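To: structure desk
From: M.T.
Subject: fold request, one chain
Message: Could you run this one when you get a chance? Sequence is below, nothing fancy, just the single chain.
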Amino acid sequence: MDKEFEIISGKVPVLLSAPHVYAHRRPSIRGVLKQGEPRTGELVREISSISGAYGIVATKNIVEYDPNYNQLDNNPYKFAVKELFKEKKVRMLIDVHGLSDHHQYDFGIFYCMRFKRSKELTRKLLKELSDEKELKSLSYYIGYTVKNRQETLTEYVSEKLKFPALQIEVARYIREDEKLFKAVEAAISRFISQI
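Reply: Done. Structure tokens follow.
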């Protein structure tokens, strides 16, 4: 596959994104190569298949830029997200990430602070996840993105495109456990069917 990312067709005006499936270079003075987040692409593909949502998934190591952080003018992935909102009339982003092992919680859900609709949708997603039998006793961290010189996909969609956007981060052990993985798939698919 030559392309850096795959577009998944959908019928529901929600876009699922997995920008960090493979290694990528975070914009910084040091230009550190960040490790990929395994199974996030698979999660997006499966949820898209179940729910009918659109999807965009990184398909190879992107060492020139970070699909989540780099600005639009230097980011083909983010430009493709913009085009999907425009051409396919997508109305919401769920950006899927892997949670690094040093965090003390199982799920993180982030949204832009000044966007009420994103906050409401975060609460609904949290309810769907925590209502899932296998995910009930897990820990959840809800937060908002802090404005800095970088611009995540969630910030870009909320602030520039003016649509609700959430970033969900899923712990590695959940992504590696088939039963938990399927429970996350089911919960997010249910969430999409209700919006």
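Reply (cont.): The chain has one domain: 5-193. Let me know if you need anything else for the meeting.
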